[in-house]
């Protein structure tokens, strides 16, 4: 999945359960452990809020951070 404003807008159209599944899948694919990841109503609401306000620059930075995490870098 390519992170861009259109893909973020599509994610925001999902119901909470499906959004949580996608988030966990993206995290797992990036090598982030998800066994203790808790995504309740409050967490999903916060994620929705952050995603809805994300700029193209924010999205680019998030993609860069994910790529660095995959490569073993932490910043």
Question: Compute the gyration radius: what is it?
Answer: 12 Å
Helix content: 55-70%
Hey, roughly how much beta strand do the residues contain?
Answer: under 5%
* DSSP summary, beta strand count: 0
**Ranges with pLDDT <50 over ≥5 residues?**
none
Describe the largest sheet.
Answer: none
Assembly context of the chains:
single chain
Order of helices and strands: HHHH
Average pLDDT rating: 88
Number of DSSP helical runs: 4
Give the structural class. mainly alpha
Shape: globular
Distance between the termini: 22 Å
Description of the molecule:
It is a single chain. By secondary structure, the protein is an all-alpha fold. The chain contains four helices and no strands. It has helices at residues 5-12, 16-29, 41-53, 56-70. The protein is globular, with a radius of gyration of 12 Å.
Structural key phrases:
single chain; 75 residues; mainly alpha; 67% helix; globular
In short:
This protein is 67% helix and 0% strand.
Summarize the helices and strands and which ones pair or pack.
Elements: H1 5-12, H2 16-29, H3 41-53, H4 56-70
